[in-house]
Design a protein that fits this description.
Number of helices of chain A: 5
CATH superfamily of chain A: Winged helix-like DNA-binding domain superfamily/Winged helix DNA-binding domain
Strand order of the largest sheet of chain A: 1-3-2
Distance between the termini of chain A: 39 Å
Strand content of chain A: 5-15%
Largest sheet of chain A: 3 strands, antiparallel
Oligomer: homodimer
Helix content of chain A: 40-55%
Number of domains of chain A: 1
CATH class of chain A: Mainly Alpha
Largest interface: A-B, 60 and 59 residues
Amino acid sequence: MTRLSKQALDGNVEALLLAILESGPSYGYAIVKDLNVRAEGILRLGEGTVYPVLYRMEDKKLIIAKWRLAENGRQRKYYRLTPKGHRTLAASRRQWEVLSTVMTKVVGSAERLSPQPKVKGAVS
Amino acid sequence: MTRLSKQALDGNVEALLLAILESGPSYGYAIVKDLNVRAEGILRLGEGTVYPVLYRMEDKKLIIAKWRLAENGRQRKYYRLTPKGHRTLAASRRQWEVLSTVMTKVVGSAERLSPQPKVKGAVS
DNA sequence: AAGATATACCTTGCACTATGAGGTATGGCA
DNA sequence: TGCCATACCTCATAGTGCAAGGTATATCTT
């Protein structure tokens, strides 16, 4: 499986979780499963990654939690987006567009491997 | 100016620098300028960001440095890619493709704001 | 009844990264 | 002379992702 390096994902886990919660309330354990299904074969996040991010987001009032007894008899902590969470998700999407633009412009894709034009100040 | 948050860029600065050096050898001060020109109005990296990354890359043998006296009488520390640096850049491009795929699939773009299909396990 | 498995939560410690805010030194120019 | 741009470097800090642990309970298997 192609794995993402830790750094590559940095700062984007929050956006991923916000996007998942946009589909409707969910809880930690299910979020981990959903994420790994949605990004099948590419991404694999553990609970040790997701739970701390959820608490961080709760502190920032992006999501709020409510305990509920599920049909299977388990206690689950359901999270849902706050208005601020929705706004943050929108901002995250804009940030992603910007990053994507920069990376495409400067780094280019894996396919476009022809040499870039010379940079002012560079020497041969 | 739309600024990228610190975290959004995390792990990608190395790829940016590798890509710039792919165009030919350059030195810290010029790299900072080039980067800010190439990503005009979007990205603004300081020297405090770039120099440490260059040292890190040098430690990892991705680039090698050579002092040279420039035409303007200044000493400049020119960096160029090693073979390992070229391979790492190629790997970074693949990583970017993967991340891009995941983010597009899960988070979606800023334009596609229609509701996502329900996730298994989510509640209304 | 006993054991295993899946569900579901949580915590700690570590390594790594980006960044601002500093500092040093020198060449060119008014 | 003073000032600016060039060009290098360092330090402290905050924020991240993650592995590796731990607890508890419901369900399924033997």
